[in-house]
Amino acid sequence: MQVLSYLKNQLNLPHTSIQHTLQLLEEDCTIPFIARYRKEMTGNLDEIQIENILKAKTFYEDLEKRKISILNSIEEQGALTSALKSKLEESLSLTELEDLYLPYKKKRKTKADKAREQGLEPLAKIIMAQNSSQLEPIARNYINAEVKNASEALVGARLIIAEWIAERTDIRDYIRHQFGNFIQITAKAVKTKMKEEKAQKFKDYFDWSESLKRIPSHRFLAIQRAEKEGFIRVKLEGDEERIFQQMQRKLIKSSGDVALQIELAIADSYKRLLKPSLGNEALQQAKEKADESAIAVFANNLKQLLLGAPLGEKRVLAIDPGFRTGCKLVCLDENGMLLHNETIFPHPPQKDQKTALKKISTLTEAYKIDAIAIGNGTASRETEALVKKIRFRNELQVFVVSEAGASVYSASAVAREEFPTYDATVRGSVSIGRRLQDPLAELVKIDAKAIGVGQYQHDVDQTKLKQTLDRVVESCVNAVGVNINTASKSLLSYVSGIGEKLAENIIEYRNENGAFHSRNEIKKVKRLGGKAFVQSAGFLRIRNAENPLDNSAVHPERYALVEKIAKDEEKTIKELIGNKELLQKIKLARYVSEEVGLPTLKDIIAELEKPGLDIRKKAKVFTFNQDIKTIGDLREGQLLPGIVNNITNFGCFVDVGIKESGLIHVSNLADEFVSDVNAHVSLHQQVIVKVLEVDAARKRIQLKLHKK
Hints:
By secondary structure, the chain is α/β, with parallel strands linked by helices.
């Protein structure tokens, strides 16, 4: 089967859409570029549909490679029949392929192999033929130097039969069905480790049983982690009696001694071969399902975080709060460049508040600060209270900013490259300030796993996690667009068609020649050829360019079309931009051609109405309840302001201004059944919560979403 036919069968998409998308992918076009600028070719597919085509294509190619490897292996053994070859070539399942290959797969010497060497395979065939009523006289014929008696001969024959049974695809498929639908995953505590402090967070699973099919992602991953750390033992338990009965119905067509031998072989095959193998397979499939769910949660959270509200091009005083080591202050200009840094000691043990207050006030004046960003770590609440005592000459907004991953950035090669003469504390403070100015531009510098918005992210498939998160970052960066004259190398590297090396070359060109003045000038960057320009140009913005389209999402390949529209309306492009009333009256059908259809024309008009519009919301000031400093200050029934700081499948966590985040369980998000947490809350959403329960010993807080 050719890849196109396979994809058409797997995906509910038009043939031409798949065909053209495959063509674009083969030409090394990126997913954001295809989704945004090739809508006519793909039939207006979105990024998710295009990614699904790419994933299905990759799976098909891997499947075909495996088929070739298996066919070659069986052919080398001289065992490839035309019937087997057809089955292998027609297979669309890796599991089915491996089952078909199992009898021919090179493996370590088995008990059945030893029995064959003892000459017992003919006896096994006689038993499975089920034509003999008395087996012992027949078995005596197989006594030799290694087989002492008829009983040993029958044992050896059963080992061979057990292996045959384990290799039958119908038996394997039946047991897979049983495991997939009816098996229970059970967990029991390892008694010697039950009382360890670290074990207590897993104590819910010290005596646990649940359907493997229905176990939620987070619970499965928690159980796996607990087992990995040695606190519990995990087993799969099913209705073995029913499984044995069904296997017997499939395999036994006789009675008496023959039936007894096959029954014994069935039990041995299941317990020694099938259950361990297919049990591990069932656990692996459950793990893959759990990984997929957890990765999806992480990806969704990351997307919301990256598209968080930016303050914009404002001057910021950033504070990384602390007690003993003091509060690190940095002043940043509109573009996030470091202007000044120093340390104040307003909190114990020094408690020099007078100097600290004066210093903050002086710096805000000297550097014309527009806003203050305070990290949400240790001493955050105390620092926020301190800052709010100051009467600034001009009104300043004060924001508390998440520090998650700031320490990772401060110690990274990226940070050292940006600030080679400053220590990690200064770099961390800069990161806090820049996150307020533009979360996306700053967070792309940090390994997404370090940002802390995932669900068991260290337990899932790391390759799949990285691929998914990289796609999320790429999608967000290109959805927002990038100012080529201020963007960091990290940010530029995610732009469609750019990558790390070209990002370095862009920075090098910028350092040597100053700011870019037009999109055409981008072509002068070393090794940035025509293909890279086409892929990237629409996502790169140039402020105050002579051609205003250079600061928009209109692709340069459509500039001539916009010029024609402007000419037909007897306007300049500058007069056309922002003229919503005029733009809405344009008859787009006049401009439809073989290359440009209505989807692209509508995108162009939307962009001309508000060129370069940031799709993100604006940052809003938020204040915690000033009376709540520790978990000991919480009381049941309190209503508190909070910020959603993590979303999972079982609910969301909310920062109420103390060290511990509280959980709004999915059952407490609404009065009705909640199937999708994201339908009720979003990351960094400002909410009001009601305290339901406080467990200070276990540092757990149960909350309920309060409807305003």
